[in-house]
Amino acid sequence: MRNTTQRRTLLLSASMLVAVSLIGVASSFSARGTELNKQLPAPALDETPKTSHSETLVLAGGCFWGIQGVFQHVHGVMEAVSGYDGGAADTAHYETVSSGTTGHAESVRITYDPRVISYGRLLQIFFSVATDPTQLNQQFPDEGTQYRSEIFAATPEQAHIAQAYIAQLDHAGAFSKRIATKVGHDTGFYPAEAYHQNYLTLHPDSTYIATFDLPKVAALQKVFPANYQPKPVLVRERSY
To answer: What confidence tier does 45 reach under pLDDT thresholds 50, 70, 90?
Structure first.
């Protein structure tokens, strides 16, 4: 568990000690990337065709900077907002959520056009390149329940599709360990502070972003070229 100061100290410092530490973690990331950053089987079950122009889903899979950054580059995504889900409104603040006691997970609310990309395809991208779903309450250097992997379903259909897809991937042995990703219910999404929005795009030179998140965007482009868009759909100020 790390608060803002601790994360910056660990991951953005230029000291030799931190650099050596990151090399070790980055090596683990690269080894994981060799196995994970490949296109997983598409969901056998997907949502029914929609006539609406927009739908939403909320995904949690570690630090929201990387999840947001990936889905901002997915064609058909209209907006991806970093925030918090799983807890109460009065605790939906970064420093409080970082305590790991609020029930919140760092999450991203994705608004997409179902005529362009389906819910199932978004889940396929999520599991293929955006997160390691076998890690429980952790994504690499970030530890705590606030970094858990969870799909916050907005409807019973979303929940059913997500549960079926997890079962499908486990049955196929897609990963060396069973998937730890939970399927929960979206009880309320709360946008994160402004300085967390578009973080990957605004801070590409951050050691954290360069080590853990930019490789996810590169994997998206390589593994899902038909779904990749070079220009990210950024969150506009005060649009959330």
So the answer is: very high
- For residue 12, CA distances in Å to 62, 94, 146, 209, 212 come to 18, 18, 21, 9, 12
Backbone angles phi, psi at 106, to 5 degrees: -60, 125
Tell me if 237 is assigned to some domain. no
Tell me, yes or no, if 63 is annotated catalytic: yes
pTM surpassing 0.85? yes
Which position among 36, 59, 63, 161 bears the catalytic label?
Answer: 63
Q: Is residue 73 part of a domain?
A: yes
Domain span at residue 145 reads 4-227
The mean per-residue pLDDT over the stretch 54-82 comes to 98
CA 157 to chain centre: 21
Domain count, the chain: 1
Residue 240 domain flag: no
Instruction: Kindly report the CATH number assigned to the domain that includes residue 157.
Output: 3.30.1060.10
Q: What residue has token string 């690499």? A: 140
